[in-house]
Structure formats: C-alpha cells, structure tokens
C-alpha cells in the first residue's frame, strides 16, 4: 500500500469497539494491538496506535481522525479502507466530513467493485488478495497452517496465547 500511494507513513489504529461489530466477538484490544506491533515491527513507515483506547466507545472514525489531526497537526491524515467497506461507507457517522477533511484511499478487494466518485477518494492500484481475517481465524481454529498468511511473530503470539481456538 505504501509503495502504491504518496503516503509517507501508515498508522494502524486498533479499535477497542467497532460500532459495526459485537464486542464479544473481538479479542481483547491489547492482544490486537500487540499483534499489530509484531506484524509491523520491521517496517519503519508503519506505526501502531492505541489512540482509540483513550476515547469514548464505540469508536467512530470521524472522531478518531479529528483527535489524531488535533494531536499531530504536523501530519495530514487520510483513511484507508477496503473496497468492500466503501459499499457501506455512507452509513458511517459523519462520512461527509471524513471525505471533505481527510479523504479516502480505497484498497481493492476481490468481488468488490464499488461505484463511488468523489474528488477526495483515491483507488489504489494493488494486487487483489483474497485473504480475510475471518479466513485466518477459521484456519487457526481448524488447526490449519497460516504460515504464509501471517508474520511468524504474530503466528507465534496467537499460538502461545491460544487465541482463536
């Protein structure tokens, strides 16, 4: 993604509670943050953020972007989403403000061909990868190898903590 855009850094914001997901279906936020940190440890232009850990729940993207912009005025923030999320983007809280003040980068997803036109939306040219978090969780749960789907430190962390079993 970073190689296919004009972005200088990519920040991975771990959300304690996504308003579209049931809380009980999520791993603890500290486990998810640790896995992100392990996954990106070798990439100097990637950064893990726990900013939403200190915000009201559920977390809304517009609020997170506003907090980040206020806290780090030297940066210009954009939102990266998958093409599958763009289909429902108009249901997000204050999506118009996200578009106007921040903008989107849309990563292609298999089977997703969203029709969306806005000057602050950029579609990224990148290879399609038909791998989802659900597929990885189910593979682990069923005892299948995820060797080429996750960085080794993340796989080790999941196995050591017996997550998704």
From TrEMBL:
GO MF, one example: nicotinate-nucleotide adenylyltransferase activity
BP-aspect Gene Ontology terms: NAD+ biosynthetic process
Xref: InterPro entries: Cyt_trans-like (IPR004821), NadD/NMNAT (IPR005248), Rossmann-like_a/b/a_fold (IPR014729)
Catalytic reaction annotation: nicotinate beta-D-ribonucleotide + ATP + H(+) = deamido-NAD(+) + diphosphate
Domain Cytidyltransferase-like: 5-138
Keywords attached to this entry: ATP-binding, NAD, Nucleotide-binding, Nucleotidyltransferase, Pyridine nucleotide biosynthesis, Transferase
EC nos: 2.7.7.18
Entry-linked Pfam families: CTP_transf_like (PF01467)
Pathway this chain belongs to: Cofactor biosynthesis; NAD(+) biosynthesis; deamido-NAD(+) from nicotinate D-ribonucleotide: step 1/1
Biological role: Catalyzes the reversible adenylation of nicotinate mononucleotide (NaMN) to nicotinic acid adenine dinucleotide (NaAD).
Recorded family membership: Belongs to the NadD family.
Annotated protein name in UniProt: Probable nicotinate-nucleotide adenylyltransferase
Species the sequence originates in: Cecembia lonarensis (strain CCUG 58316 / KCTC 22772 / LW9)
Gene: nadD
């Amino acid at each position: 993604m970073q190689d296919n855009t004009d972005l200088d850094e990519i920040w991975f914001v771990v959300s304690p509670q996504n308003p579209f997901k049931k809380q009980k279906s999520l791993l603890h936020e500290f486990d998810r943050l640790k896995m992100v940190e392990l996954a990106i440890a070798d990439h100097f232009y990637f950064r893990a953020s726990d900013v939403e850990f200190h915000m009201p729940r559920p977390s809304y993207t517009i609020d997170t972007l506003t907090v980040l912009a206020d806290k780090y005025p030297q940066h210009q923030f954009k939102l990266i989403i998958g093409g599958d999320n763009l289909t429902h983007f108009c249901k997000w809280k204050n999506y118009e403000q996200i578009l106007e003040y921040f903008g989107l980068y849309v990563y292609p997803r298999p089977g997703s061909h969203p029709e969306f036109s806005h000057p602050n939306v950029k579609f990224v040219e990148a290879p399609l990868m038909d791998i989802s978090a659900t597929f990885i969780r189910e593979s682990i749960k069923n005892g299948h190898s995820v060797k080429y789907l996750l960085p080794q430190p993340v796989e080790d962390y999941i196995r050591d903590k017996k997550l998704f079993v």
